[in-house]
């Protein structure tokens, strides 16, 4: 993990929840959707195919783990996952809980409007529930 | 693969390119971006975590394979991958070649405007290049 440093914009836009095997798990500072981001702690990676095959498998495993926990905690209609990186090039995987009637449903969350910060108590409560679901 | 049937909307909006181990590989009928979709040939799956761990690993492997081929063929700035499924619930993974200045750059492709069909000769040429890159 030498030389890995979380991208500044990701750091600004999200809070670190925990570290899993490969990834930082971060909660986006946007109350419009329960929105997590996984950041593989590897330097200079921008595409999934830049990772080693083992790291790719780890990333899949961790994405699935987080998606299931998010579904369980939120009861969302659909989990959306995506790795875009058109703006922030450091590889990061979005895992978002979507429900009918949420902002921009059934369209994507990316690029839609402006983030609405979450109240600190709500962020704490959501984080605690997610960590519980991840470590049953 | 018994009981698997490609979703009707996916079938209408894309052409079958080939079948890889787990997935159908389809080319979206939209010339605005080189846009592929992988559809795991398993019935009644809507989330990645509904797949068995082995199928999840296969899907990752096939997504990486296709993403690398698409990058090689198009020279795109960034590959975008995503599994949303808010409209079509059958699990499918988008793999899209994005370049600076393309429609809606750096925003996402989903929900942006209306598909622009590709001329048949262009579709054939792109398909041939992609199949070559996938089977070197």
TrEMBL record, chains A, B:
SUPFAM superfamilies the UniProt entry points to: HIT-like
Full protein name: HIT family protein
Any single GO BP term: methylation
The organism's taxonomic lineage, starting at the top: Bacteria, Pseudomonadati, Pseudomonadota, Alphaproteobacteria, Hyphomicrobiales
All copies of domain HIT, residue ranges: 36-105
E.C. number: 2.1.1.-
GO molecular function, one term: methyltransferase activity
Organism: Shinella sumterensis
InterPro entries: HIT-like, HIT-like_sf, HIT_Hint
């Amino acid at each position: 993990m030498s030389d890995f440093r979380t991208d500044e914009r990701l750091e600004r836009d999200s809070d670190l929840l925990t570290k899993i095997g490969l990834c930082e798990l971060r909660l986006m500072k946007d109350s419009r959707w329960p929105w997590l981001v996984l950041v593989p702690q590897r330097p200079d990676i921008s595409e999934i195919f830049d990772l080693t095959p083992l790291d790719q498998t780890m990333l899949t495993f961790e994405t699935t783990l987080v998606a299931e926990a998010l579904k369980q905690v939120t009861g969302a209609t659909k989990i959306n996952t995506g790795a875009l990186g058109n703006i922030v090039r450091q590889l990061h995987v979005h895992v978002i809980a979507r429900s009918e009637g949420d902002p921009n449903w059934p369209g994507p969350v990316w690029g839609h409007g402006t983030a609405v910060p979450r109240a600190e108590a709500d962020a704490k409560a959501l984080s605690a529930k997610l960590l519980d679901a991840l470590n049953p």
